[in-house]
Amino acid sequence: GDPKWVSLLRRSMGAMLMPGRKWQRWMLMQGRVRGGKGTIMNVMKGLIGDGYRGVSMAQMSSQFGLWGAEGARVLSVSEFGALNSKEGELASANLKCVVGGDPVTIDRKYMEPLRDVVLPGFLVVQSNEIPRLSNRGQGLASKMLVLPFANSFLGKEDLDLGEKLTNELQGIAVWALVGAKELLDEVDSGKLW
Half-sphere exposure (CA, 13 Å, Cβ side) for 18? Predict the structure, then answer.
């Protein structure tokens, strides 16, 4: 209920709805289990449809982890677990390329790789813990927006919430578009998030 966090969520969801990635920011939704992170991302999936891609951190650290991200407007990464150093380095490199708008090669099984692809998606990472990723040069940390989830609904879940939110998608889209306008107004005035 903190107005600053509500504003951050509204602006971030607005940025996810807009084409392009000129802000080079990413969001870390971090906090308690059953806190609402997945619910928010399910709403975004409902708003964006085929432009949404969800992957685990283990997938991001694999050879084919970026396959399918070339058309994603939102790239949601979840399920942080213990990664070995090689996996952590690869996952960090992939995340940095997404956030920084760097051209990447996307390996695809039994197909030619896609070369020099700039991934268009807004990156959102969901985690119960602060992820430990390689961050030499502060490329990830300097572009991170953190939305904390301090409350848990564990044992108090509203089992009909998904259906209720689906019925409210139009209103949620309008709410997020207000956030997009706020973000654009700030950029026009020389501020950035």
Answer: 19
